[in-house]
């Protein structure tokens, strides 16, 4: 086929490479988000059907009232109960902090538990739908728990004081991302075994759920009856708010991806448009020649369309393949973050991705190519003939339309598409203005500079449009990259740095009051430093000075404690500590509140706070505000009461301890003696968090690499576009006796300047963006990142100048004679 | 003898920023089949413009052109393309080879456009004929000017055109190379009985044609011996 032949020849002569790479990039980015979005939506759908394992659930820190069951049954509503908590499970010398789910008969009321006898099974033939729940004496476990405890199915493991047999592995379950699921591997056991484990003591941290399912009307009427009987500790969850919660977190991630994808597609689009324009320019003569050889406009249009279609087809397939792997990386990150299996993508995103190549070509390339078939044949005789090419407005219009379609259809978010496009336009204009100002400033400065600088600056001025475009594109790409890097490092590492080497690395919680003295002795026997033990009760702040507290802050239960000794890293910033304080009316006990939460809740010194603790009401008067260091990894509390203020509320004790690695075995001794104590291995948790963050930012980083790649493509495209003119200038200058060194030097300077400007603008923009993020999202103190102020412009200058010089080398290495002859 | 080209009252006026510019006025010209015609004239006298009109690359402002008995005025651009494909070949001053294609592929191109079979063999045969049998896979930039023009000549003759238009085929070559190229052109022309319309400013070359006409200020002056109409 002739079109195929022509395509192959054009490819061989290198004219299509840039266009092809840019197309592949566009398709990669688009297919990655299309696939990911589709999977995400599939997952949400799958999850929502069994999100709760019920139609409605009441969650609380205490079991539901047995009396309610009769009403539920009278209304014809099925019910069952579930308890969630974290507990150490161990087998032999190995142990793990597991996310325990205790279920009663009939669980789940909606959805299924899928189990298998083969750990990590993915093959559907190995997976069965569980009939009922684990039998008493048995436990179903996450596959990953088996290697962690070094056991196999059928072996015993210990939960609290009860030994249970691991009989099946869990493949999927409703509410997999429920409470405590971030803590560790899931185990499911039968309610009948709960008592013997003796894990739950008064004051233990447990989430009880009462699951309900039935006809809408029945459930609704039960809820109407139930509503006034619920306490402050009870919360009703329905599928919608459960789904919203899950969606909320996933949405943010998705929007970031779509955002990055828009950048990627936009940059790829600019590169495609530039490449297409060069392609068109080179092909004017070819078209005129083909016409003189008797090819009609129709024929030529067909030939070129076919070529481009084939090119787009191939690029789409390659791009799709890359997009599939990119998307898998991102999905992997989501998986590790939310612990939910992602649904497979449907056929639609694959088809759409394959269409995105041709679509990108139509939007970004076609406007530049449209005039080609209309080139008059007389052009072969009259080279100087100036052609009337398509209008710029049309190009921008088509490109925007396709961009909106791509983002809207593929990212399923038309509004975001428009918003981003508008925002980008604003950023683009601002950046362009800044770039223009910088370049003009450079021009003035250059007038006094050496000849190398003068040449470089003259060259920038001559190609002002292209120069500004390059600066804008690079600045945006670098800005995004910089923002991600800084956010990532500052979130983990700034936290890490503050942890001293001998800081406590284990939290011990759930220590019963009767065990405290003995426990201290055990520590001392082992020569371990005894940190203060804090009594702890879980309570919910309900009123401030008799008014219901604002809704949006501290909606969960908080840990309440009392002590007479202020920890080293706590500091009183207002009010007085107990030794100097005496309550205004002497009746209410005092409470010291963490400063930030006090501010957010509008608490003042002397305010009267009302807490609900396990259904009982406790009141206290605010005596002081404290600052504390969350990063210190010591037990920290929003509310510290006067000693003894809460002793009626059956506290459990907690403390932290530093165990050097050679003393890790102490945990075994401890847990053998007190099976109900829960050990949080902070070192492991920190590592786990770091792993997750690393994986997520890897996924996002991949997308940003794509964005940067787009930036490079645009630079290369812009440079190759100017290469002919550069050759002419260089040839002329060399013919006039300019040494090659001067020309090479001026090229380096030219691109270094562009890179420097881009880097500078990028740092400014990134800091502004970070300021916004830090103030509104992460709530960490704002601090300028001076090292990046220095590094970014310098590195950017180096990078861009290398890339520019590399793309331009042809223009100075071609002998002047050749250049001048070609010019004739 | 049958008439191959017939131009009647041909005129060309173009609109420029500084008003209308008449390039050609009232040109009448007949070229018989197999005849060779040289068009001479000063630079800017309108030679290339005339050639473009005769070959159907451009449309006249007044008058008409008939090629191989077909009146071009009755055709649209698509129709004229068809006539070019069927009857016309070109050799240009600036060779007009596609730089990304090898010598062989350049010659193959018009044959491929026509949908011929054995395109490769035919093209190779013509390149052999112009003495470039060893350089089939070379790209134009790797060939000298003379060699490039030979490729262009091979390309022009490979389609066995009825009429060959040549616009200063040796204008970009030194005189020795020019001679060889001209020899080749006339040889092939004689071999294949092609009608030749040649633009040149060299009297020696013009004299090799059966007939010469001269353009001056957009008008035709006859200087050859053969009668015009
Ligand atoms: N489309 C056009 N628009 C404006 N001017 C034109 C156009 N076509 C031809 N001319 C002008 O008409 C005149 C004749 O051009 P033409 O190329 O035919 O001359 P020529 O005899 O081939 O000259 P040369 O020997 O230099 O090739 C020139 O002055 C040219 O600039
Ligand atoms: Mg001319």
Protein described:
The complex is a heterodimer of chains A (824) and B (229). Chain A contains 21 helices and 22 strands. Chain A has 824 residues and is of the alpha+beta class. Chain A has four domains: 1-51 and 246-412, no CATH class; 63-230, no CATH class; 438-503 and 682-824, no CATH class; 506-680, no CATH class. In chain A, the strands form two sheets. Chain A has a six-stranded mixed β-barrel. A six-stranded mixed beta barrel of chain A has the order 13-15-20-17-19-18. In chain A, helix 2 (17-49) runs antiparallel to helix 7 and helix 13 (464-497) packs antiparallel against helix 17. The longest helix of chain A has 54 residues, at 239-292. Chain B has 229 residues and is of the alpha/beta class. The radius of gyration of chain B is 17 Å and the shape is globular. The longest helix of chain B is centred in the C-terminal third of the chain and has 18 residues, at 175-192. Classes of the chains: A alpha+beta (824), B alpha/beta (229). The A-B interface holds A 2, 5, 9-10, 12-15, 285-286, 289-299, 376-378, 380-383, 824 and B 48, 51-52, 55, 57-58, 77-78, 81-86, 88, 90, 92, 94, 96, 98-101, 105, 109-110, 112-114, 159, 167, 172. The complex binds adenosine-5'-triphosphate and magnesium ion (MG). Adenosine-5'-triphosphate binds next to strand 1, strand 2 and helix 1 of chain B.
Count the strands of chain B? Answer: 10
Weakly predicted, low-confidence segments of chain B: 224-229
- Structure class of chain A: alpha+beta
Please bin the fraction of helical residues of chain B.
Answer: 25-40%
Number of domains of chain B: 1
Helix content percent band of chain A = 40-55%
Please indicate the count of domains of chain A.
4
Uncertain stretches of chain A: none
Q: What gap, in angstroms, lies between the N and C termini of chain B? A: 13 Å
- Secondary structure: number of strands of chain A: 22
Average pLDDT value of chain A? 80
Please state the second-level CATH architecture of chain B.
Answer: 3-Layer(aba) Sandwich
- The whole-number mean of residue pLDDT values of chain B reads 87
By CATH, the topology of chain B is Rossmann fold
The greatest inter-chain interface is formed by: A-B, 29 and 32 residues
Largest sheet geometry of chain B? 6 strands, mixed
Q: What is the CATH C level class of chain B, in words?
A: Alpha Beta
Q: How would you name the oligomeric state of the polypeptide chains in this document?
A: heterodimer
């Amino acid at each position: 086929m002739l079109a195929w032949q022509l395509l192959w020849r054009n490819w061989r002569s290198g004219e299509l490479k840039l266009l092809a790479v840019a197309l592949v990039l566009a398709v990669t980015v688009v297919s990655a988000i299309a696939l990911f979005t589709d999977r995400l939506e599939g997952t949400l759908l799958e999850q929502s059907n069994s999100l709760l394992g019920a139609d409605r659930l009441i969650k609380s820190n205490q079991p539901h009232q047995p009396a309610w069951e009769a009403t539920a049954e009278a209304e014809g509503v099925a019910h069952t109960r579930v308890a969630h908590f974290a507990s150490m499970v161990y087998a032999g010398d190995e142990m793990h902090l597991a996310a325990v789910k205790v279920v009663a008969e009939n669980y789940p009321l909606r959805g299924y538990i899928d189990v298998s006898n083969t750990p990590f099974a993915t093959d559907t033939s190995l997976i069965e739908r569980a009939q009922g729940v684990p039998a008493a004496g048995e436990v179903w476990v996450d596959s990953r728990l088996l290697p962690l405890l070094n056991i196999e199915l059928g072996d015993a493991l210990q939960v609290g004081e009860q030994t249970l047999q691991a009989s099946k592995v869990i493949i999927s379950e409703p509410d997999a991302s429920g409470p405590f699921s971030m803590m560790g591997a899931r185990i499911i056991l039968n309610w009948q075994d709960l008592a013997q484990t003796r894990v739950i003591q008064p004051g233990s941290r447990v989430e009880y759920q009462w699951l309900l399912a039935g006809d809408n009307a029945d459930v609704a009427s039960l809820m109407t009856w139930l509503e006034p009987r619920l306490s402050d500790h009870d919360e009703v969850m329905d599928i919608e708010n459960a789904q919203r919660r899950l969606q909320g977190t996933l949405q943010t991630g998705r929007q970031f991806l779509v955002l990055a994808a828009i950048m990627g597609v936009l940059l790829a689009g600019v590169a495609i448009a530039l490449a297409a324009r060069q392609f068109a320019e080179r092909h004017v003569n070819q078209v005129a020649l083909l016409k003189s050889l008797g090819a009609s406009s129709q024929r030529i249009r067909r030939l070129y369309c076919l070529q481009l279609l084939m090119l787009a087809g191939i690029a789409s397939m390659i791009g799709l393949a890359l997009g599939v792997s990119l998307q898998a990386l991102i999905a992997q990150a989501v998986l590790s973050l939310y612990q939910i299996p992602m649904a497979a993508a449907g056929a639609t995103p694959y088809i759409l991705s394959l269409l995105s190549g041709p679509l990108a070509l139509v939007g970004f390339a076609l406007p530049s190519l449209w005039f080609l078939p209309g080139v008059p044949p007389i052009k072969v005789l009259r080279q100087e003939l100036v052609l009337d090419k398509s209008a710029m407005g049309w190009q921008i219009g088509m490109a925007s339309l396709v961009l909106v379609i791509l983002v809207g259809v593929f990212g399923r978010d038309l509004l975001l598409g428009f918003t981003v496009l508008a925002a980008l336009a604003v950023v683009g204009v601002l950046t362009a203005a800044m770039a223009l100002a910088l370049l003009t400033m450079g021009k003035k400065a250059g007038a006094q500079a050496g000849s190398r600088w003068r040449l470089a600056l003259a060259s920038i001025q001559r190609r002002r449009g292209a120069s500004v475009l390059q600066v804008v594109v690079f600045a945006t790409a670098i800005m995004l990259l910089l923002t991600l890097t800084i956010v990532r490092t500052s979130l983990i590492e700034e936290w890490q740095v503050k942890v001293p080497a001998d800081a406590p690395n284990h939290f011990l919680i759930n220590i019963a009051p009767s065990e405290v003295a003995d426990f201290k002795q055990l520590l001392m026997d082992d020569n371990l430093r005894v940190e203060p033990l804090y009594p702890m009760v879980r309570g919910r702040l309900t009123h401030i000075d008799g008014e219901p507290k604002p809704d949006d802050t501290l909606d969960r239960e908080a840990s309440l404690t009392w002590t007479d000794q202020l920890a080293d890293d706590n500091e009183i910033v207002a009010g007085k500590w107990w030794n100097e304080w005496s309550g205004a009316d002497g009746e209410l006990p005092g409470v010291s509140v963490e400063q930030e939460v006090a501010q957010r809740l509008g608490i003042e010194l002397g305010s009267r706070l009302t807490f609900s603790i396990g259904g009982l009401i406790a009141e206290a008067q605010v005596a002081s505000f404290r600052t504390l260091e969350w990063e210190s990894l010591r037990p920290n509390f929003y509310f510290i009461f006067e000693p003894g203020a809460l002793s009626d509320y059956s506290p459990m004790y907690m403390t932290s301890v530093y165990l050097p690695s050679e003393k890790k075995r102490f945990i075994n001794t401890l847990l053998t003696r007190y099976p109900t104590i829960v050990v949080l291995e902070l070192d492991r948790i920190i590592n786990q968090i770091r792993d997750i963050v690393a994986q997520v930012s890897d996924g996002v980083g991949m997308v940003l690499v794509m964005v940067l790649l787009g930036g490079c493509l645009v630079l290369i495209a812009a440079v190759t576009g100017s290469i002919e003119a550069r050759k002419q200038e260089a040839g002329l200058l060399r013919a006039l006796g300019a040494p090659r060194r001067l020309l090479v030097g001026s090229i380096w300077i030219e691109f270094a300047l562009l890179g420097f400007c881009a880097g500078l603008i990028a740092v400014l923009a990134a800091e502004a963006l970070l300021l916004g993020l830090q103030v509104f999202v992460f709530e960490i103190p704002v601090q300028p990142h001076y090292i990046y102020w220095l590094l970014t412009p310098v590195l950017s200058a180096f990078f861009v100048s290398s890339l520019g010089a590399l793309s331009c080398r042809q223009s100075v290495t071609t002998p002047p004679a050749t250049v001048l002859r070609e010019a004739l | 003898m049958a008439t191959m080209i017939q131009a009647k009252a041909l005129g060309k006026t173009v609109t420029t920023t500084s008003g209308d510019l008449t390039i050609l006025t009232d040109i009448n010209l007949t070229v018989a089949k197999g005849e060779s015609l040289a068009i001479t004239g000063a630079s800017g006298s309108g030679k290339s413009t005339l050639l473009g009109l005769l070959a159907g690359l451009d449309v006249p402002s007044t008058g008409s052109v008939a090629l191989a008995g077909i009146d071009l005025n009755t055709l649209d651009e698509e129709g004229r393309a068809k006539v070019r494909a069927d009857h016309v070949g070109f050799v240009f001053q600036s060779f007009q080879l596609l730089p990304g294609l090898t010598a062989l592929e350049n010659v193959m191109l018009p044959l491929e456009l026509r949908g011929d079979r054995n395109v490769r063999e035919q093209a190779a045969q013509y390149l052999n004929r112009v003495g470039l049998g060893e350089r089939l896979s070379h790209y134009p930039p790797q060939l000298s000017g003379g060699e490039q023009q030979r490729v262009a000549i091979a390309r022009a003759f490979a389609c066995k055109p009825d009429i060959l238009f040549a616009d200063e085929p040796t204008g970009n070559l030194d005189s020795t190379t020019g001679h060889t190229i001209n020899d080749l052109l006339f040889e092939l022309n004689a071999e294949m009985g092609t009608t030749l319309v040649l633009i040149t400013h060299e009297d020696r070359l013009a004299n090799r044609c059966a007939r010469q006409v001269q353009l001056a200020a957009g008008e035709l002056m006859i200087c050859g011996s053969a009668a015009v109409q």
